[in-house]
Amino acid sequence: MPGIVGRVACVVLLVSALGGCTATLGPRPEAPPAASFFPLTANSRWEYVVSRRAGGDRFEFIATVQQHDFIAEDGQACRVVDERYTDVAGGTRFPVLYCAKGGFLHRVMSLEYRGEVLEDNGLRSGELKFLPTDPAKTATWEGWTNAYRLPDGSGFEVRQFHARVFESQTIEVPAGAFENCMRVDTTAMHAATGPDGKAVGPGVVFYYADWYAPGVGLVKTEQRDASAVVLATIELVRFAIGPETRTHEAPLP
Predict the structure, then answer these.
(1) Helix or strand run (H / E) with residue 12
(2) Is there a contact between 106 and 130 (Cβ–Cβ < 8 Å)?
(3) Which of 79, 84, 87, 159 has the most CB atoms less than 10 A away?
(4) For 231, which DSSP code?
(5) Looking at the domain assignment, is residue 75 inside a domain?
(6) 3 located within any domain
(7) 147 assigned to some structural domain
(8) Tens digits of per-residue pLDDT, 72-85?
C-alpha cells in the first residue's frame, strides 16, 4: 500500500535473505486482530482514489491481503498483498510481498503470478526498510528502493530518508475522519545508476507525506516537488479489516 504515487520500487540483498523468489502459496494461521498502523490481516481490503495533475488524472487503486503467505525456500513467511489499478486494463494483479526482518517491514515487488505460483520476473525491484515494525521506537530511518536492475548492473534506485511524527490533528478523507495518526515524511532521491552502481546524470528529489491510522493503515498520501507544489494525492475511500467495514457513499471514478 503505501507510498504508491510516483514510487518506483526482489532487491538482491532481500532476495538473498529470503533464500530465493520461487515458492508456492501455502496456508497460514489467521493474523491477530489489527492493532498497528499497517495491519496485514487476511482478506483486508483498501480502496483509494489517486489524483494527479491537479485532479485532471484520477484512477482507483485497490489493495487486498491474500489468505496465504509466500513461503520462501528458507521457510520465512511473507504477507502477500495484491494491487490492482483501474488505469491498467484486464484487472492485472500486481503482488507485493511484505517481509519482516531486522525490525522493519521490507517490500518485494519483482514477483508475478504464474498460475498460483509467485516467481521472480527478473527486475529485482523492492524496497528495504519500508516501515519499522515498532514505530514508537524508531523516529527516523533510511530506506532504499531498487526500481530495477539490468544484467549489466545498471538500473534505477531511490534513496529515502524517513521521519515519523504522531499527529495531533484529525485527518479527513472520503472514508471518514481519523485521529491519532502517524505521519511519515520522506525525502526520496531518484537516480539512474551505471554498471558500477554510481549515479548517472541528474537526480530528481520528491517529498512525500504518508498518514497511517491505527488499526486501519494508510489513509492519505501527498507527493510534492522541491517547490512544495502538490503533484499527486492518494485518499482512502473505503476499507474492510476483518469484520470491520467502513464505506463512503461517493462513487469511485
Answers:
(1) helix 12-18
(2) yes
(3) 79
(4) E
(5) yes
(6) no
(7) yes
(8) 767 778 899 999 99
pLDDT tens by residue, 68-125: 888 876 777 889 999 999 877 667 888 999 988 899 999 988 888 887 778 776 666 7
Identify the residue whose cell numbers are 544484467: 151
State the DSSP H helix or E strand holding residue 74, giving kind and residue range, or none if neither: none
Grid coordinates standing for 230? Answer: 502538490
Pure H helices in the chain: 12-18
Q: Quick one: 14 exposed, middle or buried, by C-beta within 10 A (0-12, 13-18, 19+)?
A: buried
Three-state SS annotation for 100-146: EECCEEEEECCEEEECCEEEECCCCCEEEEEEECCHHHCCEEEEEEE
The sign of the torsion formed by the CA atoms of 60, 43, 104, 98 equals negative
Can you say whether residue 194 is alpha, beta or left, with left for phi > 0 and alpha for psi between -120 and 50 degrees?
Answer: beta
Residue 19 near residue 74 (C-beta atoms within 8 A): yes
149 within domain boundaries: yes
Start-to-end CA distance of the chain, whole Å, equals 19
Here the CATH number for the domain that contains residue 138 is 2.40.360
Domain holding 89, by residue range, is 12-246
Count of structural domains, the chain: 1
What local confidence, expressed as pLDDT, does residue 186 receive?
Answer: 97
Strands 182-193 and 176-178: unpaired
